[in-house]
Fold:
Amino acid sequence: MSNLLPFEEALTAIEKAATVRVASETLPLSKALGRILAENIVAPINVPPQANSAMDGYAIAYQDWQDDKAFVVSQRIAAGQAPQPLQAGTCARIFTGAILPAGADTIIMQENAQVEAEQVRFLSTPQQGDNVRPSGQDMQQGQTVALSGQQLSAMKIGLLASLGITQVSVFQPLRVGILTTGDELIPAGSSLQTGQIYNSNGPMLEALVAEAGHMVTCSLHAADTPAATEQALQQLTTECDVILSSGGVSVGEEDHVKHVLEKLGTLHLWKIAIKPGKPLVHASLDGVPFLGLPGNPSSTLVTFHWFARLLLSVCAGAQATRPKAYTVKAGFRRSKAIQRDEFLRVTIQQGKAYPHAQQSSGALLAACESQGYLHIKARESVEENQEYDFYPFNSF
Ligand SMILES: Nc1nc2c(c(=O)[nH]1)N[C@H]1C(S)=C(S)[C@@H](COP(=O)(O)OP(=O)(O)OC[C@H]3O[C@@H](n4cnc5c(N)ncnc54)[C@H](O)[C@@H]3O)O[C@H]1N2
Ligand code: MOO
Structure:
């Protein structure tokens, strides 16, 4: 066990070795959803540009306020109109989103107003500044509002649109290559012969890469021979920015991926102290980063979530963020401690974590029936009601 790299050290090593692998391009904002910003965004204007009313009502100068005073309505200001300065001692009829006239500093909502012919009397005493949205309340000119490396979500698209921005500099999509290995694997759609199983890691990895916002440009399957593995890896190296593979990284004679990597490229690390996912390989081939994920489907899932996602983010120009942990109490106890950090597939019931009964790294339904990972550190037993880090699947 001593040759297994600790979990945190492996994460740090993979993150540190990663570099941005994509160029930037300028896109219309409307085409940039999900892309990674390649520039900081500095607000070119205040939002809102001018102080405006948060309510339908009446604008007054607070200094004119007197209890029971009848205010003459001297103008009407709808949203989008440019108002005249407020005549001293009067009020202006105003609507939500309309600009405050110069001299006004307080809005009284119409529910608190009593209209009498051309005059208005107010039923409650206002505070100065009531219902005014000052210029720059949301964003101030010169403020940095989004950073290079952040992904453009729908809300960020809205934010940039409110600044009048029409084009953004973003990174081009990361081209990811996928290789599955194993003579026992056939694609769904054919009927199984003895010894065969369906290739599930290929479709799962393609979906995981797409879910993370990257582009699978080439997905290959190689037979369990050094020549087939070598040929597939050479093709992926020329066509992709990053390569992920599944299977063939353990110690058996049929596991060729690691040997081919040693021949064609540079091996950075092999075998990590995690369960599942131990035989993970990190390498590079002609400068193309490579991550060889173990073939057991739950090992593929866990190592994608922790390692591949991080590597792909950095290569795509994104900020490297770790998933958010929530502290939860274990609803069970386990006296046996192991030498690897373990990611148990668990569900949360009444605020406590319970492990799925099936924790085999070959079982994928168990992960689908769970809500996330409970992280048990190497050499720790599990005590009931003790707190552990829980990572919901949707935080990856
Ligand atoms: N003597 C030892 N044997 C194994 C060790 C070990 O330390 N000593 N480690 C075990 C662990 S832990 C894991 S994890 C696996 C990883 O092995 P590989 O990454 O080399 O993967 P394969 O042997 O190719 O496959 C493992 C398992 O997964 C199935 N598989 C592979 N690819 C797919 C796919 N695309 N879709 C669905 N299922 C797939 C494959 O049929 C095997 O059952 O090694 C252990 N052995
Ligand atoms: O590391 Mo393996 O993934 O324990 O099954």
Residues 275-278, 294, 296, 299, 361 surround molybdate ion (ligand 2) (CB under 6 Å). The helical segments are 7-17, 154-162, 201-211, 226-239, 257-264, 297-315, 365-368. The CA atoms of residues 222 and 232 lie 7 Å apart. The chain has four domains: 7-22+173-315, 24-47+137-171, 52-133, 326-395.
